[in-house]
Amino acid sequence: VLENRDLQDSIKPQKVEFRSLNFNSTLRWQPGRAREARDTVYFVQYKVYGQTTWQNKDDCWGIQNHVCDLTRETSDIQEPYYGRVKAASAGIYSDWSLSCRFTPWRETMIGPPTVTVVHSNKSIILKLQAPRSPYKRKTGSKIPMTNYYDLLYQVFIINNLLDEQHRALVYEGKDKVIKIEDLRPGVSYCVMAKTYVPMLDRSSAYSSRQCTVL
Question: Which locations, inside or outside the cell, does it occupy (predicted)?
């Protein structure tokens, strides 16, 4: 029995946590202390905070991965959720490992906007598009994150003659089309943007860099 108990403890999943980007939410974990046996499989359940019964996630029942997509199960973005995982190896089952409470609206990371650059001779015109959620309208198009948050765009410009680290904030606001003027012809400029959520005081990562020479 003791040996079994040891095995149960050593295969128990570690660091169970939700990760979420634009409401694409997954539960992730690390294998237990035991060098993971080839036959270790995992079982995932989830529930809304306050509910008594756990729901099985059928697609993540007896899987070998260390990640389970719970985007659909956490679509009520204001609700707090829990996830839990247990492992089985050689007919022995570990105890459940529980995640922290996860509220999608509060905790999802928001991605950067998509940036398209159009340039005229002394200015750069940017078109920004908010990231999209996985949830769809009746028409089938994905609902943008601006439906869920009051988002601002932050636009940074790097003048390549100056040092790389010098990113000047040239715009913050809600406009989707932005004109950056009074730039020097023949100089290479790079533009990056972030999404900022004032209510949560949270910024996205930078968008990929768009560079242009006027």
Answer: Secreted
